[in-house]
Write a structure and sequence with these properties.
Layout: E1 3-4, H1 14-26, E2 37-39, E3 44-46, E4 56-58, E5 64-71, E6 75-82, E7 90-93, E8 100-101, E9 105-108, E10 114-117, E11 123-127, E12 141-144, E13 150-153, E14 158-162, E15 170-171, E16 176-178, E17 182-186, E18 194-201, E19 207-211, E20 224-225, E21 234-237, E22 243-246, E23 252-257, E24 266-272, E25 278-284, E26 297-298, H2 305-308, E27 323-326, E28 332-335, E29 340-342, E30 352-354, E31 370-376, E32 378-379, E33 384-388, H3 393-401, E34 408-412, E35 415-419, E36 426-428, E37 436-442, H4 449-469, H5 473-499, E38 510-511, H6 514-520, E39 527-530, E40 534-543, E41 546-555, H7 562-574, E42 584-590, E43 593-599, H8 606-611, H9 618-638, E44 643-644, E45 653-655, E46 661-663, E47 670-671, H10 708-723, H11 740-749, H12 761-764, H13 767-780, H14 791-798, H15 812-817
Parallel strand pairs: 27-36, 38-42
Antiparallel strand pairs: 1-14, 2-12, 3-9, 4-5, 5-6, 6-7, 6-8, 9-10, 10-11, 12-13, 13-14, 15-24, 16-21, 17-18, 18-19, 19-20, 21-22, 22-23, 24-25, 25-26, 27-28, 29-30, 31-37, 32-36, 33-35, 34-35, 34-37, 39-40, 40-41, 41-43, 42-43, 44-47, 45-46
Helix pairs in contact: 9-10, 9-14, 10-13, 11-13
Length: 818
């Protein structure tokens, strides 16, 4: 609803309102415009490094300014700031999530619009009177008010738009937060982008502090609330400096932040900061006799935010695998535990990652290679997937050591809790007294075991050669000539192989010799897995004097189509480059030896993750399936040549050190022509049976094979990820639940999707999202290919960009025409 610039009198106590109204009636009408400096229609500002009053609009008192604030050398924030304070503290911004480059312009157009354009004329941000619901009045001028509010007003001073209605992370005296209004914290102390925490005046009248489902703005479980459900109307920062939740009749329901310092002598601001705390600050004005330092001083009570944020999804105050502590100033800071390092040294919110290779889930668990770091008064309270009591601390550690999914064992008073990766809501605090967390880390010398084995083989070879060469001068000479001849013949043969194999032309990959890869694997001794055409080994290659773990896929010579399979995989993978695809480092095509060298994925496959002894948490599963969708979308629409994977299944979705998804094994990939023509059917060879259940029906019907076969497979994997079970459970006692596809549709049709996640408390808290993902999965597994959405549309539906309609039964179309 429109208001007058002078209509904030209602913020005063009732007994002063009548007096104020009387004063306003006797004032001349022109005096309204004397309280601020008008900005005329057609005015503009330009983003330059000059930050003076010729490049911003200042309020009458000079306390506040509106304009471009430089962040670094070439980017600018269109903002309002305290102009008489040296550090120009920002209280509002328009383009926090899309910074303006140097040379951008801000215009107050002749039509009364606020428009921010980049140097190329592209619109970054805009605001109009109609965006506040005022469509019948014309904007006459703009003004930067002494309250810190920037407004668009009509000729009679009626406010048609104001920055106070669209706050960022800060509110000021006389400002309100209405029903549905929110403050969103910045990402970090120096990054103004929207962050992970929100102060929201809910539609039910309750004021809550809660984490966002970052990067979305939907809220998670609240970590603080005003308990004013049903009666709350506004959050009011009144002119006495206190912040309260009030009812519709202006009655104070609860005081959120009390304060005794007057805005007359102090600048006041209340801000939801990046560390999840809502704080009130004061700064003495130049006219004040205060003994306070000329700096922002917190006057709100400190809180232990490390303990407060402790439930729901997300990582907590700090990033994943890190823990929160309070400093001497009662402010939180984040740390990585021993054996972990920051994923991004410049961004602690991204959390920590292990600085070692994770424990293998192969039959040999490498238990001798790991030890525990004991952390007293430290706990990651969420993420427990198993608990035991009464047990001893030693038993607890051994249980974790023998479980490759166990990252940490927490022990307290005979109770043992096993926790999975990533660790969440970590805190080190006296309130966690009695808890000892045992973090599993690799021993310092264990990463060199494989390297030592390889080096021992090399040393043995060196000794044998040395003995032979030392036997006689004549023998040394003969061996020297023989060595020269062998090296010449080998290099010529290798060169011939490269020149005679035209398919590798233009492929920017490292070409390995068989000898290099034989040495890298110590003679192909450590299996990682086996497929239809190849066996994968673990190895170490020397790259720029760094020993890097790799996965080497060695194609079996006995497979007749192995040559074509190998070439298809090289071509397909070499032309792809995406963070959710396993990266190909190089290959060997030497005679009968054909091998691919990939980056090593330490956390196994999605199959291990989903169907292992412990159930992974809901948040991790959703992140993995989203990343898988992004990788597939890239293959279908982002590559220079459209690619069909043809074998999407949990075994081919690998997990890196941060448990991010990487699609692997493009061995069956088919490349479409640039005109998008469909390929003809090809024979599927499934010697190990793993692909059963993920294969689209058109493979067996003689129909053309398109990208929709991947969409079908992804739908099955999506269902499995949601429900954390296989698509076909032969041992399931309930006949209806054996086939996940049919059971999923029945649960959806009967509005009982909670049955699909019956034993998953985290998922049951997000049933709306579960239902949406199930509907997307059912659309993907439609037997008629034309009914399946593209992967781009699938990704848009998953991310909430487009709505998801209710799907038909997967086989309904086929049944209707048969």
């Amino acid at each position: 609803m429109a208001s007058k610039i002078t209509s904030s009198y209602f913020l005063f106590p009732p007994y002063l309102q009548s007096l104020l109204l009387l004063l306003l009636l006797v004032l001349p009408t022109c005096s309204f415009s004397q309280l601020y400096k008008n900005v005329t229609l057609g005015s503009s500002l330009t983003a330059t490094q000059l930050n003076d009053h010729h490049h911003c609009w200042v309020s009458q008192s000079g306390d506040f300014a509106f304009g471009f604030l430089p962040l670094g050398t070439n980017t600018f924030l269109l903002a309002i700031w305290f102009d008489k304070i040296d550090d120009k503290t920002v209280l509002w911004s328009a383009n926090r999530d899309n910074l303006a480059p140097k040379g951008s312009t801000f215009q107050f157009t002749s039509g009364g619009q606020l428009v921010l354009n980049d140097p190329g004329g592209n619109q970054i941000w805009t605001a109009t009177a109609s965006s506040s619901g005022n469509t019948n009045r014309s904007v006459s001028y703009a003004a930067m008010l002494d309250s810190g509010n920037f407004v668009l007003a009509a000729t009679d001073s009626e406010i048609l738009w104001q920055s106070f209605d669209v706050p960022t992370d800060t509110i000021l005296p006389s400002q309100t937060l209405n029903i549905g209004g929110a403050l969103v914290a910045r990402y970090s102390e120096t990054n103004y982008k929207s962050g992970r925490f929100q102060l929201l005046m809910q539609t039910d009248g309750n004021l809550v502090l809660s984490p966002n489902a970052f990067p979305f703005e939907t809220t998670n479980i609240a970590y603080w609330e005003s308990n004013t459900t049903g009666s709350g109307f506004q959050l009011l920062f009144n002119l006495t400096g206190s912040i309260s939740v009030i009812a519709e009749n202006n009655t104070i329901l609860t005081t959120v932040v009390p304060n005794t310092l007057s805005p007359k002598n102090y600048y006041l601001r209340a801000i939801l900061e990046h560390d999840a705390v809502f704080r009130l600050y004061v700064y003495p004005k130049a006219t004040s006799n205060s003994t306070m330092p000329k700096a922002w001083t917190q006057v709100s009570d400190p809180v232990n935010i490390c303990i407060m944020v402790s439930d729901g999804t997300g990582s907590g105050v700090c990033g994943f695998n890190s823990y929160c502590q309070l400093g001497d100033d009662r402010r939180p800071f984040c740390s990585c535990p021993q054996g972990y390092v920051l994923i991004d040294p410049n961004d602690e919110i991204k959390g920590c990652k292990p600085n070692f290779v994770a424990q293998s889930c192969n039959p040999f668990l490498e238990t001798d290679d790991f030890e525990f770091v004991a952390m007293d008064e430290t706990n990651w309270p969420q993420g427990s997937y198993a608990s035991f009591s009464p047990v001893s601390g030693e038993w607890c550690r051994n249980e974790c050591l023998n479980d490759c999914f166990c990252t940490l064992a927490a022990f307290r008073n005979g109770e043992c809790f096993k926790k999975r990766y990533p660790l969440v809501f970590g805190r080190m605090d006296p309130e966690a007294a009695g808890i000892t967390s045992y973090l599993k880390v690799r021993k310092l010398n264990s990463t060199a075991k494989l390297n030592d084995l390889i080096q021992n083989r090399r040393n043995k070879t060196t000794i044998i050669v040395s003995v032979l060469l030392g036997s006689s001068v004549f023998l040394n000479f003969i061996l020297f000539l023989l060595t020269l001849f062998i090296c010449y013949h080998f290099r010529k043969r290798k060169s011939d192989v490269v020149e005679e194999d035209p398919f590798i032309l233009g492929v920017n990959l490292r070409i390995f010799s068989y000898e290099e890869l034989n040495n890298a694997t110590g003679g192909f001794i450590q299996h990682l897995g086996r497929g239809s055409f190849a066996t994968v080994y673990k190895g170490i290659i020397d790259s720029d004097n760094n020993n890097n773990l790799v996965a080497i896929k060695k194609f079996d010579n006995v497979v007749p189509d192995g040559e074509q399979e190998f070439k298809a995989e090289v071509i397909a993978i070499a032309r792809t480059n995406h963070k959710n695809l396993v990266r190909l480092l190089g290959f060997c095509n030497e005679g009968e030896h054909r091998m691919m060298v990939y980056e090593f994925m330490p956390n196994g496959s999605l199959a291990d993750f989903l169907f292992g002894t412990s159930k992974p948490n809901w948040h991790s599963r959703i992140q993995i399936i989203l990343e898988t969708a992004r990788g597939l979308c890239y293959l279908h629409e982002g590559c220079s040549t459209q690619t069909i994977h043809c074998d999407i299944k949990p075994q081919n979705i690998l997990l890196d050190e941060s448990f991010s998804a990487r699609i692997a094994d493009l061995g069956l990939a088919k490349l479409l022509k640039n005109d998008g023509a469909r390929t003809t059917p090809m024979t599927m060879t499934m010697t190990n049976g793993e692909s059963k259940g993920y294969v689209a029906p058109e493979w067996f019907r003689g129909l053309p094979i398109t990208v929709k076969v991947d969409v079908y497979s992804f739908g099955v994997v999506l269902l499995e990820t949601i429900c954390c079970r296989r698509s076909l459970e032969e041992k399931e006692e309930d006949e209806k639940q054996k086939v996940l596809r049919d059971w999923g549709y029945e649960c959806l049709k009967e509005m009982k999707v909670e049955m699909l996640v019956e034993k998953d408390e985290e998922a049951k808290m997000e049933l709306k999202r579960v239902k949406k993902f199930v509907m997307i999965a059912i659309w993907c597994i439609q037997e008629e290919p034309s009914l399946r959405p593209s992967m781009k549309k699938v990704l848009q539906m998953m991310e909430g960009a487009i709505e998801v309609s209710f799907p038909p039964h997967p086989s309904s179309f086929i049944s209707s025409i048969s």
